[in-house]
Amino acid sequence: MLDQEQQLLAAATHYLARLNAGDLISVEAFAATVDPDLRTELVPYLLDVLDSDDPLEPITLTPAEQALAERVTARTLARLAELRAAPMQTLTAVRASRRLSVKALAQRIDLPVDLLARIERGGVAVTSLPGKLIARLATALAQTEAQMRAVLQVPPADWGKISPQLREAPASYTSRLAPSGVRLHAQDGTVPQAEQVMTFADALLVSTATSAQRAEWQAE
Predict the structure, then answer these.
(1) Which residue in 105, 91, 113, 99 sits closest to 159, CA to CA?
(2) How many Å apart are CA 19 and CA 23, to the nearest integer?
(3) Contact 89/181 with Cβ under 8 angstroms?
(4) Which of 25, 87, 104, 154 is most deeply buried (CB count within 10 A of its CB)?
(5) Where do runs of H (alpha helix) occur along the chain?
(6) Which has the higher per-residue pLDDT, 107 or 74?
(7) How far, in Å, CA of 114 to CA of 204, rounded?
(8) Which of 159, 162, 151 is nearest to 91 (CA)?
(9) pLDDT tens-digit profile of 150-170?
(10) Can you tell me the distance from the alpha carbon of 84 to that of 12, in angstroms, rounded to the nearest whole number?
């Protein structure tokens, strides 16, 4: 199996070959195509290579190492293709998949119910959300923080189009899942109401937060 130095050298050789062939790909774009475990080390390695006047020594792989390198590359490219093709879920959809109501999730993360509902509807700027809130959401919904940040970037969906199962569920069930301020309709499902997007701090001020919640989240 190739050690890290060999992998870096092989990747750098491939990168330089692409540049020499006229494919002017950036270091960052090229690094995004390799194994994530190698990516952090590869960017500074390539920059050092480009700044150096010394040519790279050619690397010679055994047939077994070459086959392994090709399999790793194929798996990495396949995984990247899967990630690009997979539709991202909204925060509402992730919560619903965990069978949690807005109230139940709000209690788990100690956030006012109406503020969480506003976040789900896209009424709070994602860039203003505290890191502590993202961490709590990730824990409550069994996601990594990186996954949760990606979920929060997904625009809110039409509740009536989330899934056939949700559309056909009894009204008592959908009302527990739907965010506050969402209108339910027997034929069309649930339709989020448009509202002004504000920062987390401003949304907290107009929410039903308790004094303890305000003190906690304002200190963030």
Answers:
(1) 91
(2) 5
(3) no
(4) 154
(5) 4-20, 27-31, 36-51, 63-85, 91-97, 102-109, 113-120, 131-140, 145-153, 164-168, 171-177, 200-205, 211-218
(6) 107
(7) 9
(8) 151
(9) 889 888 865 444 444 433 333
(10) 25
